[in-house]
Specification:
The protein has 102 residues and is of the alpha+beta class. It has 2 domains: 8-65; 70-102. Helix content is 28%, strand content 25%. The protein is built from 1 helix and 7 strands, in the order βββββββα. The strands form 2 sheets. Strands 6-5-4-1-7 form a 5-stranded antiparallel β-sheet, with no helix packed on it. A hairpin with a 6-residue loop joins strand 5 and strand 6. The longest helix has 29 residues, at 72-100.
Length: 102
């Protein structure tokens, strides 16, 4: 079991009608995809969770993910990559400008 009572989780957006662990995800649960909830109850015997505000549907580890999959490290990496690309773009622009003036 990956989560405990009180943990914040997000229902995965890529879920389809099939079995995940011991339980199935069905169309009636689609409204919860991509949304964050708090774990209300953990059933270690059944390997399942009940989440607040989800009409008592049962969710499994395979149906859930961490609510903030884009942590600060990832954002920092993206910023560094953007700065590098921006530098490359500036170099290309300078070359183009110098070719215009020749």
């Amino acid at each position: 079991m990956n989560y405990k009572v009180g943990d914040k989780v997000r229902v995965r957006e890529d879920l389809i009608n099939q079995k995940y662990g011991n339980y199935s995800f069905i169309d009636d649960m689609n409204q919860y995809k991509g949304k964050e909830f708090v774990v209300k109850r953990v059933d270690t015997y059944a390997c399942a969770y009940r989440l607040f505000d989800t009409n008592n549907w049962i969710f499994t580890d395979e149906m859930l993910e961490e609510p903030n999959t884009y942590g600060t490290e990832t954002i920092a990496d993206i910023i560094v990559e953007i700065k590098q690309k921006w530098s490359e773009i500036n170099i290309l622009l300078n070359r183009l400008e110098s070719n215009l003036h020749e």
